[in-house]
Amino acid sequence: MKFGLLVFAAASVLAAESGDANQNSLKPLDSHLFHSLNKLSPPIVLPDQTRALYTASRYDPETNKSFSFLSLLDTVSGQSTQLTPEMEGERISSPMWLNENTAGYVFKGALYQHNLQPNINGTLLYNTTVGISSATYRAATDQLFFLADVYSDGNISTVAGYKEKEKNRTDSAQVFDNLWARHWNKWMTPVKTNLFSVKLTLAENGSLGQAAHEVNLMQGLAPSMDPLLRWEAEGYAVSSDGQHAAFVVRSPSPDLSWSTNVDIYLVPCNGSGQPELLTEAYKGAASNPVFSADGSALAWLQMETPGYESDIRRIFVRNITTGQTHSVARDWDLSPHFMIWSADSNVLYMLVQSRGDTKVVTVNVLSGARAELTGSGCTTSIARLGTDKLLAVYTNTTETHDIYTIDVNSVEAPMRRLTQVNQDKLHDVYLGEAEDFWFAGARNEQVHGWMVRPHGFNASQKYPLALLIHGGPQQANGHAFSFAQWNPNMYASAGFVTVQINFHGSPGYGQNFTDSIRQQWGGLPYEDLMKGVDHIIATYGFVDAQRLVALGGSFGGYMANWLNANTDRFSALVAHDGEFNLISGYYSTDELWFVEHDIGGVPFTASGRPNYERFNPERLAAKFKTPTLFVHGASDFRLSLEQSLAPWTLLRRRGIPARLVYFENEDHWINHAGNSVRWYSEVLGWISQWTTAPPAPSHGYQRTPNLTPNHGH
User: Fold this and answer.
1) 25 SS3 class
2) Strand runs (DSSP E) across 570-671, as ranges?
């Protein structure tokens, strides 16, 4: 299969060079079509391996409404049957099997059951006074597991009373003594997410016979003196026999804002025992607990370096009976982010980023031996399908997410496609292939990127270039179809040669490459991006060097500001929820561990202050000169609104064109589909406005940024 992918990619490049007529007859990918595409959830496989459940959702730009539905997939024939009508509003979630003839799902916080007949609504099976989420069912013990938000007593039945007291308060004050007052987009409250189990006895027809009292599986944890800092579940797993659960929590402590310590606890599912801490030896973040098929072992991913959120994830395996724990494949230089067990409990199937792809890799739990099962593209979820297959969701730059089978024993053609959920919408739409390139970047090390050619491409013409800069910064662009704001084909359809570069700091190229960005925010990545653009211009004669734009979000937004201070080669910039002032950014962010590790120290000490000033865009405010569009969400607590207001004020006050797009109901991302439509309208309009005609020749750019602090500006 890997060879076939290479042949296809090479053929597409030849077609692009020759101005393929069929390609030029395709429609561009417009914003309304893009936002109306169907999105799939990971499939849930029936124990007999012949059927799976999944949910699909879509947005209708004309009515500004979202819809979702539950589907049944025949894993042999690939035939899908829509089980429920399209449900408006909140998405259907947590598809599950209650028995071989009954499906379950969560809608608007309640559990519904469905008899697998097409296009009918499910019937209410289980509801509480609070909404449930992230639910799963174990038929072996007739138990439903779910997350729910409760107050300090951990009791679902008392939530309504607490809420009534809140409504009758005469003031709205919130008082904090701990820096963990906000996270991402929410202020801390006494309400916390806990893990519950409840025994559901089902009648023969699949209806609920009896529901027992809910059991809070986290009740045995030590009480917290601060009601705003109680234990909160961030994820969980349940063994197939329903005997044990493992949950992920951030331990309440005074240093939550500057600690990455996230733990995993093991607990009996019937609530008969106290939670057992499994990760006490490590102060980094633990994640992704998963039980072996026979329930005898638990594996998880563990970061070992305290305070470093992008540390390599090591694989740990614990014998449930003996308690013995060992680490697997410590010679592996890549950082997996998801895994499941094989049917015989001898192998772990891992998802890992590798050179722009997300691959499925097998890891032997005893020897650590590894083998890749997939090639180019990105696999986003996997589930076990019998003893020799996986059911996966896969995507690449030109194909949206669909469900495939992966034959774990096949070498030539391991993947078989089962669904094509957007074929009717995209069959006549241009989606450009990602053309990979490598170049000598910072430190003369090889850096990876790719290019997507514009719609209607003609090699004899000149095209503007859009450089999309990823966030993180320890994240990476991938060969995937993104439903978010940085899909390269949206820019290619707007007429841009679209370039993405995985600069120093990106995962998937070895941990040393990821670690290299520490104390180098404006150094190595900047050099990589400048040299990458140089490479594209020198290699491809159809790129217009006088019509360049750069766009990025989060760290990419920071980099847009850093570009503004260090080069005039770009006609326009876009900074989405970026950072302008590293000093004020430190004092207003929600996660101090991130900047303290990445930038180095704290800005209120003599040793730490120079690290923040060195790559601080605000220090070079007098050098800003490029027209910039700033985008920001009101509830972004990672980078507060002032980080966009400040550079917008700077440019407007200096008479440099600048625009601010403010979303009062968004956070660090654009979460609402209607806002995403507007986002693309504003962004594509802005970069097109500044590249419609070649500007005056650039006076060059400063390849090495000004690193000398100038406190007087």
Assistant:
1) coil
2) 572-576, 628-633, 658-663
Three-class DSSP category at 581: coil
Nearest partner of 335 among 352, 355, 347, judged by Cα: 352
CB-based burial of residue 394 (10 Å sphere; 0-12 exposed, 13-18 middle, 19+ buried)? Answer: buried
Per residue, the 3-state secondary structure of 473-506, as one string, reads CCCCCCCCCCCCCCCHHHHHCCCCEEEEEECCCC
pLDDT over 90 percentage in the chain: 88
Cα 357 from chain centroid? 14
Mean pLDDT calculated for residue range 286-304: 97
pLDDT band at 16 (very low <50, low <70, confident <90, very high): very low
Report yes or no: 502 and 356 within 8 Å, Cβ to Cβ. Answer: yes
Which amino acid is residue 569, in one-letter code? R
If pLDDT is split at 50, 70 and 90, which confidence band does 639 have? very high
Whole-Å CA distances, 417 to 234, 378, 672: 33, 14, 30
Residue 586 has pLDDT above 70, yes or no: yes
3-state helix, strand, coil in the chain (%, to 5): 20, 35, 45
Q: Where are the alpha helices (DSSP H) in 130-173?
A: 159-167
Q: Which two tokens stand for residue 352?
A: 């890992």
pLDDT (average), residues 537-553: 98
Contact between 247 and 218 under an 8 Å Cβ cutoff? The reply is: yes
Could you give the maximum distance between any two Cα atoms of the chain, in Å? 78
Six token digits for residue 488: 């390269």
Is pLDDT above 50 for 700?
no
Q: How far is the C-alpha of 672 from the C-alpha of 666, rounded, in Å?
A: 8
pLDDT above 70 (res 19): no
DSSP 339-394: EEE-TTSSEEEEEEEETTEEEEEEEETTT--EEE---SSEEEEEEEETTTEEEEEE
Distance CA 109, CA 97 (A): 18
User: Containing H/E element for 147?
Assistant: strand 143-150
Distance CA 652, CA 588 (A): 24
Distances (CA, A) of 699 to 446, 551, 573, 639, 702: 28, 21, 17, 33, 10
- The pLDDT of 184-210, averaged and rounded, is 85
Ranking 224-228, 266-270, 401-405, 691-695 by mean pLDDT, the lowest is: 691-695
Tokens of 634: 């009101």
285: which DSSP letter?
B
CB 70 within 8 A of CB 84: yes
Show contacts of 166-172: CB within 8 Å, 24+ apart: none
Is residue 325 over pLDDT 70?
Answer: yes
At residue 457, does pLDDT exceed 50? yes
Amino acid at 674: G
Both tokens of 179, joined, read 């820096």
The answer to whether residue 66 scores a pLDDT higher than 60 is yes
Residues in a beta bridge with 286: 302
CA atoms within 13 A of residue 91's CA, in its CB half-sphere: 16
Nearest to 463 by CA among 384, 369, 543, 552: 543
Q: What letter would DSSP give residue 252?
A: P
Cα–Cα distance for residue pair 227/188, rounded to 1 Å: 10
| pTM attached to this predicted model | 0.93
Question: What is the rounded CA–CA span in Å between residue 506 and residue 539?
Answer: 24
CA pair distance 447, 331, nearest whole angstrom = 23
Cβ atoms 385, 418 nearer than 8 A: no
Query: Is omega for the bond preceding 473 within 30 degrees of 0, making it cis?
Result: yes
Mean pLDDT of 369-384: 96
pLDDT score, position 97: 96
Contact 381, 391 (CB under 8 A): no
